[in-house]
Sequence to fold (609 residues):
Amino acid sequence: MQLPKLPKTRGPLVATAAVAVALAGGATALAVSPSADGDHSATLAAQIDPAKPKNVILLIGDGTDEAIITAARNYEKGAAGAFAGLDNLPFVGDMTTYGLKTAPDGSRYPFAYVSDSAPTASGWSTGKKTVDGRLSQGPSSGSNVPGVDYETVLEKFKKDGKRVGNITTSALTDATPAAAGSHLNARACQGPENMADCLPAKKANGGKGSVAEQLVDNKIDVLLGGARNRFVQTTDAGGTVLDRAKTVHGYRDIATKAQLDAVTSLQDGPVLGLFSGGTEANPKATTGENMIPYYEPLVATAAGAGSATQKCSVAARGTQPRLGDMTQKAIDLLKQDNDKGFFLQVESAMVDKQEHAADACGAIGDLAELDRSVQIALEFQKTNPDTLVIVTGDHSHSTQIVGGTSGGKATATVQTVDGDPMTIGYSTAEPPVNGNTSQGHTGSQIRVAAKGPQAANVNGFIDQTDLYDIMLGQTPSTLPAGPTTTVTTPGPTTTVTVPGPTTTVPGLAPAVKLAGGIAAPGTLSNAAARKGVPVSLLATKASSAKVTLKNGSKTLSTTTLKLSANSPKAAKLSASKLARRKAAKLTISVTTTAGTEKVTRTARVSVTR
Fold:
């Protein structure tokens, strides 16, 4: 049976040689702003890092496309505002999300231009396309016919001895988190009692079991989300999935934010946090298995819900943690005493769920929750530059910002932070199921953005299957070689020879406050780095400078220099502690002081084998 040919990267990616240069008074924001604040070429060039990432943090907004990002930004930050996380990544591209359809007659698999979360999440997890409803398993002749299991990024990281985490605000067994760590022909097979569509996969039939069973059997270090009801189901062998998780795999059962806060390490075993799903009277009930959205609902109606003064209200969440709480805890646990690296998938799932429900406030709130988690990931990346952060969605959805209540079959109006009304329209309602109408997915391309090693590969036009190779780390390319990098500052000109074209950074304005600059090679061979890493320093008035060279958290050398006002000072930092023939990411930190004033600047150096 023929699979369609799928190009890996369908648009040209433009790479510019990187120079690790940071100047006092220069722009430090990563995102390219439309404002008239000068050319951003040097800033972007400095962000290019072709190395393979040590850590990967993949943040997913389910159903998140440009329309809901814009609506949430308008409401939370204003039309001229920006999200501190989502809008602050250096490389941004467009990503297609199409899938495949089954092929009963044995011919090629037709394209599905509108996909659900199962094949889209499987796309980035495995690097391969599949059909609706399928979890990290290849296409086949019918929805109940299993395909070939495809190994996922999470499973590859785990196999390599790295730690892995999988967190969501939906059911932990829902499609997006399920695709990271399970393989099934039907996403509905979430627990051992939900296997009617996946009979060959039942453990009693020699299969891997339901989503819940496979997630814990994959020994994922940190599992956080909803759907306790799926894990208290009885397995084919007797006992519940939760029993097996605790007795066989040593999981700690976490049910509240307070219990999550109390976990400080993974030394006592992996963590299974199940914060919603089921009741004491009916522990297997599916109602309420997703976690509570950040905002109370404002559901669009044909007559138009909300008003020009309508605001979204924060919902009572009881003992449930927020997505940011789970993100921070997962990073803290995965990084601790870990020199091998980790993979973490974070999903703000209720964006999609509330879009299905035409709940404008619910979707906006959880898009803002995604932004808070992106900020947490970027804060970690600052001090761990070998971490790749990717932010995207799985498919586009129904939200549209419209001109008034006639702009959709159902609308809702809220007052943004600007004080002006914004109307959101919904017109993709699917046929009612059990009397309930749900808004449907759409097939538009969506945003993807990234920072860190290999982040430049999301630039331009790609497909979501390309993320698979990017996260695993493609063979690093060699940046174009060039003569010199010239840094123009008050006083004499300092020239440092580095790989890359000639880049001139405008000189600093006459100094009033203390300011300092640093220039260093963007790339060095291991042998050259062990002989010493050259760095050029500058301060706008007499000061001393403390210079520190680090490889990750390990300090290689430290020195203190006396600087003359407006006169560059050259130094060579010892990297003799660097392991031979080992690629590395070095960080140079320079703190200049004058009296009570202090300025810190950093530069990055990639060390190749």
Remarks:
- Confidence is low (pLDDT under 50) at residues 5-36, 482-514.
- The chain has two domains: 57-472, 485-608.
- The chain has 14 helices and 28 strands.
